[in-house]
Amino acid sequence: MNINPIDHFWGTFSHDIGIDLGTANTLVLVLGKGIMVREPTVVAAHKKSKQILAIGSEAEKMLGKTPATIVAERPLQDGVIKNLEYTESLLKHFIHKVHQSPSSLPKIARPKVAIGIPSVVTEVERRAVSDAAFHAGAREVYLVEEPMAAAIGGKLPINEPRGNMIVDIGGGTTEIAIISLGGIVVSRTMRIAGDEMDLDIINYARARYNLLLGQKTAQDIKHSAGSAYPTGKESKVEVRGRDIATGLPASVQMSTGEIREALSNTLRNIIEGIKDVVEEAPPELVSDIVDDGLYLTGGGAILKGLPMLLAKEAKLPVVLADDPLTTVVRGTAKVLEDAELLEKVKFTQAVR
Description:
Strand order of the largest sheet: 3-2-1-9-10-19
Number of strands: 19
Number of helices: 12
Distance between the termini: 26 Å
Helix content: 25-40%
CATH topology of the largest domain: Nucleotidyltransferase, domain 5
Strand content: 25-35%
CATH superfamily of the largest domain: ATPase, nucleotide binding domain
Number of domains: 3
CATH architecture of the largest domain: 2-Layer Sandwich
């Protein structure tokens, strides 16, 4: 491990951190301490004054339940910032939160921060992420492509002359990449992921049962009864919403097979994306992937039966990450610990 001595000096006064700034969830890992923040990427604020009322888990409880004077929303959409002010408030809140340990020394230096971002973000979007981190208190900001961070966090041999395939399914984006010799050879960012699966369930309930569901309800259904592939005995779940015709509360019994059918369109699109990336890869790397399989990670990876579906449709072995939700943030932290690795994989660097 190659650690810059200057960074080591400043690191004694501030906690350098890795951040997975996701559409659905934000994770913050503090070097030497581990993951200290794992909360929804949600901000609640007063609509007129813009005063922040809640962030993270407390703000998520307000989704769909706020009066006209309060707005509760995700400041990121499809992996990129849609509300810079709210994103800055969220990052500032979490960065300050991890610096409130009683054992912390007086802060004469601000933290160095590495953030995982989608591969295809524009220059404007990259600048927005960096600006948000600087305004939140960072002294240096490094942006790392999410599939690279996931591969590093998953301890894949990215520096070897061998193909490593990553499929990272998050809330707003699905990242598919093949990595070799420390670089991304072929990649694709699809702005379809967990949020689209929720929308699939909403649309299915509306079309089949004339029932209107909220996104949080659809998300809960996906987690409790959703599946990508038949994994056992089918069952039914009670789904509550509002009858579109009468406007009154209503409930229906939906089978796990119906929920799987609802999710099939988004899953089919992800499978097509995987096939496209494999088709674009050099034959030598494809041979490695056939041997080693694709590495599946991200919050969407925990959908029941997904590894089996991908293995069947993509004709590849599938390796499910040990802790799919944390691979990206663990990867961002690892690059901060190794100056040589950071120099090789950083997407952009900004210092103020």
